[in-house]
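Supplementary Methods. Inverse-folding protocol.

Structures were first reduced to a discrete structure-token string of length 106. This string, shown here, constituted the complete conditioning input.
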């Protein structure tokens, strides 16, 4: 990211990548992966794929239950990213999904 002049996005990008991959690993029974793509002139896309074709649970509000140690991942993604979403994915003939978010460098 430094090569592309995106040093100011590193902390947020690391948080988002961690949340997406953590969800993929924690909530599925199979392989998971991460993809980070820079699209000039200014969009960083971070996405995680997993082997579960079911859509992710909708993000819960960040306020409220402060005692729970889980359930805030996609709420953080929603709060920190410019846009996020998911799509069904077939990888090597197996169904799954791709959950992604984007950060603008502008």
């Amino acid at each position: 990211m430094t090569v592309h002049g995106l040093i100011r996005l590193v902390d947020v990008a690391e948080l988002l990548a961690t949340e997406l991959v953590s969800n993929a690993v924690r909530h599925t029974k199979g392989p998971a992966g991460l993809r980070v793509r820079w699209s000039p002139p200014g969009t960083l896309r971070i996405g995680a794929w997993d082997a579960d074709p079911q859509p992710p649970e909708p993000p819960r509000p960040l306020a409220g239950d402060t005692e729970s140690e889980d359930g805030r991942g996609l709420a953080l993604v929603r709060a920190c990213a410019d846009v996020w979403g998911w799509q069904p994915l077939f990888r090597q003939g197996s169904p799954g999904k791709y959950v992604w978010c984007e950060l603008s460098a502008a």
